[in-house]
Design a protein that fits this description.
173 residues, alpha/beta, six-stranded mixed β-sheet, 5 helices, binds ligand AR6
Length: 173
Amino acid sequence: MKNRIQVIQGDITRQTCDAIVNAANTSLLGGGGVDGAIHRAAGPDLLAECRTLHGCQTGKAKITKGYRLPARYVIHTPGPIWHGGGRNEPDLLASCYRSCLELAEAKGCRTVCFPSISTGVYHFPLNQAAGIAMETIGEFLASHTLPAQVTMVCFDGTTKGAYDQALAELTKP
Ligand code: AR6
């Protein structure tokens, strides 16, 4: 199952895959960070489709087409804002990864790319977020054949280091 997860450093908007995940906000109407980069690369039709979705709750996910992106779909998920850990942030972050994987599976996606959800302006502690991401993805893949491959696309070396370590620490083979 570990061999179905990889960690790379790069720009998620450049990935050719069935679906990329957007670390969105609950409005689904765009923002900064990876969300801004995805909307810029996809073009205005993405925002037009997002307007029809009427937002999304934290920890849930909604899917759109990828428009000008090399990815076929974009799965939008609002991660939790870190408030110190006492507001269910870990469970909500796990729920983001699970909800995205469920949607990807339902659409028949073989390859899915994730960014590091919530560890930018939402300030979720990086190492803890990486552990939650890898545990949740690993658990999902152990019981589902799709997606066949999940890639964590890390924008910088520090982020990649955290996800590399979390993947190495996954207990199941
Ligand atoms: N490819 C891959 N990762 C990226 C890219 C990229 N092109 N650009 C940034 N990252 P953030 P959040 C990394 O702040 O913490 C938005 O305004 C970035 O370095 O984008 O979930 C939304 O609208 C970091 O490691 O997302 C929300 O309001 C990671 O992506 C809010 O930010 C996540 O950082 C969501 O905050």
